[in-house]
């Protein structure tokens, strides 16, 4: 039974950065989708790098990407929530995973809940969720969900199904902790629109680099309202003369 009042299914976009086929990352992301689907109605657009990776590498600008990848990017930008997974390569996400998200419009994910997942060969790189994936989605002002899911090669059978009970429990916990946050996810679009227009205005008025120089404005944690932050920004345009 759904925990949500709305009967409209949540628009979930899942991304697996796994380049191989079959892929443990893909199996992990699929297991998270399945667990979420047990709890609430969802519609899923699943982007698999095992399919799109060869289409991604040569593009520098978004318009150079094949239509299929442009449609995938549009789906990410329109999602109610994301489930993202990557294999660990050299202690981080893969280069292509980052390349894909480099094309995502920078205000499109404001307040969007993102469930983080990764698969690696070693337990020692589990914190890739915290020191690589979480900062990337913090840049987007997304709401990274409290519990991420990390799996290693040992958690899977030779057929790439999940073998480990501990991993299954972790997926259940991650989804359980996500559900109360996902409840209001469809409303995030309004907030994203406000942030987007404010960002565009600020860029036009000041130039982005000049804005960063306004050091009194940057600690905006003390100014939760965007309008209040903006009026402080304008006050600071005329700096008092120092005798
Ligand atoms: C180029 C490369 C670099 C890797 N680097 C790491 C690493 O730094 N840490 C780690 O734990 N695993 C590393 N691995 C192992 C993969 O992360 C692991 O096998 C992963 O589950 C593969 O996911 P896939 O089945 O979706 O391709 C690396 C694998 C490759 C191919």
Automatic annotation (TrEMBL):
Task: List, alphabetically, the Pfam families matched.
Answer: FMN_red
What terms describe the molecular function in GO for this protein?
oxidoreductase activity
Top-rank taxon of the source lineage equals: Bacteria
Cross-referenced InterPro entries: Flavoprotein-like_sf, FMN_Rdtase-like_dom, FMN_Rdtase_MsuE-like, NAD(P)H-dep_FMN_reductase
Sorted keywords for this record are:
Flavoprotein, FMN, Oxidoreductase
Q: Which residues form the NADPH-dependent FMN reductase-like domain?
A: 11-154
User: Matching SUPFAM superfamilies, A to Z?
Assistant: Flavoproteins
Q: Which family does it belong to?
A: Belongs to the SsuE family.
Protein's recorded name: FMN reductase
Instruction: State the organism of origin.
Output: Acinetobacter indicus CIP 110367
């Amino acid at each position: 039974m759904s925990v949500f009042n709305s009967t409209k299914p949540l628009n979930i976009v899942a991304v697996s950065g796994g380049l191989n086929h079959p892929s443990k990352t893909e199996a992990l992301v699929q297991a998270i989708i399945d667990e979420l689907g047990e709890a609430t109605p969802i519609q899923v657009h699943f982007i698999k790098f095992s399919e799109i990776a060869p289409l991604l590498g040569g593009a520098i600008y978004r318009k150079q990407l094949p239509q299929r990848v442009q449609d995938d990017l549009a789906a990410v930008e329109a999602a109610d929530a994301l489930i993202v997974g990557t294999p660990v390569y050299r202690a981080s996400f893969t280069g292509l995973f980052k390349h894909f998200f480099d094309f995502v419009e920078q205000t499109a994910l404001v307040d969007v809940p993102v469930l983080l997942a990764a698969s690696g060969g070693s337990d020692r790189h589990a914190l890739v969720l915290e020191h690589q994936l979480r900062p990337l989605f913090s840049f987007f002002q997304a709401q990274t969900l409290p519990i991420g899911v990390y799996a290693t090669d040992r958690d899977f059978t030779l057929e790439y199904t999940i073998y480990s009970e501990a991993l299954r429990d972790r997926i259940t916990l991650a989804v359980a902790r996500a559900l109360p946050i996902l409840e209001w996810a469809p409303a995030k679009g309004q907030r994203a629109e406000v942030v987007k227009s404010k960002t565009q205005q600020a860029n036009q008025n000041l130039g982005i680099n000049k804005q960063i120089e306004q050091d009194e404005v940057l600690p905006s944690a003390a100014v939760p309202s965007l309008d209040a932050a903006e009026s402080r920004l304008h006050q600071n345009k005329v700096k008092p003369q120092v005798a």
